[in-house]
Amino acid sequence: MSVRRVRPGIAAGRLRAPPSKSYTHRAVLAAHFVGHRYRIEDPLVADDTLATLRAVRALGTAGTRRRGRWELAPGAVPKLQRVIDCGESGTTLRFLLPAAARLSSPVRFALGPGLRRRPLAHGLAALRAAGARVTGDGRSPKFLDVRGPIHPLHGTVDASESSQFLSGLLYALPGLPSSSVLSRVGSIVSEPYLEATVRMLAAHGVTVHRHGRRFEVPAPQEFSGARFRVPGDASSAAYHWAAAAATGGSVTVEGISPEWPQADLAILTALANAGVEVRRRARSVTVSGRPQRPLRADLDGSPDLLPLLGVLAATTVGTSRLRGAAHAGAKESNRRRETAKLARAMGAHVSTGPAVVAITGTDRPSSFSYDGAGDHRMVMSAAVGALVGKSASRIGSAETVRKSYPEFWSDFHQLTGAAEGGR
Q: Residue 209 is inside which H or E element, if any?
């Protein structure tokens, strides 16, 4: 486990957002279903997205990595049993299970240790309802075996744990012989991610009709298109905007397109409502100054923001209330528990309930030593919190940023001058 020391500092400057992880995953899946030569421009090269690139290769879509682009095209299908190593990428697993279930031959999914703890039961139930044979109950399996082919689905999908299985089905169902109708049940979570999926499908000639919780998927439909440019990532930019707000600095992030829905753009509303200056331009967003009042946010649609807003709340005088995001407890770590742990280490008072995390912050945050919980988003959030400590803080699991934002430490140091390597 690598460790980073982060000194107090002020975040100031300008940088370009890294490519979106969410849209890179979706573009790879689109390339697979298009079924001809396809180019992804400016993809995110990270552990999770590379897992998805490897996964479609196992299903018959070959990918070549070049500088600034990936070239994908139909390739040879392995003659032996196909094995997809998902590593720690929950998106890879949940997106690719329905794609694999289109086939009549078996596909094995290998799950990394952290991924085995992620909730899968609801998604596997939907696959079985569509006729897939799945070996494994979704509770701590090292492998999942799936065999199709699936048939059109008319029924319910419980997306209360994750919307990713539903997104995977929306990609897989249009190519079936007849239409499907899905009704979403359970609490509404991660809604912007479903909107991103529907928008990506439309960009590739595939229509999905939404009526509240009901999704009508006409079939058969063919995917079209030959290229996609990945937009800048609001999820990654959020850490730098929060760093500006925590330290009273000013950070501009370029490359954020308003054209594509992104859940974590919700941080800008939370910051503006707390009195932080937010200036939006056509392709950039600047955040300046500190919060003038406690934060209020409903995070059911953007659960990944919980650790970051928790850190910012710990540096803001008064009691901030972060609602929703119950499913944040089943990510790479239990982010509800880890957010409380990190905020307390910074000197904040925290109370957690099933619906709200309440954090009473301080204007004199403490430096801390935090193990990182093996979670990339906890590590990056801790880096933001360390900027306002009394002295340098130590953050473990520093290498986990490779999962979603490999250049994080370099970009963070560029804006703050505060990050140091170490063991």
A: strand 209-211
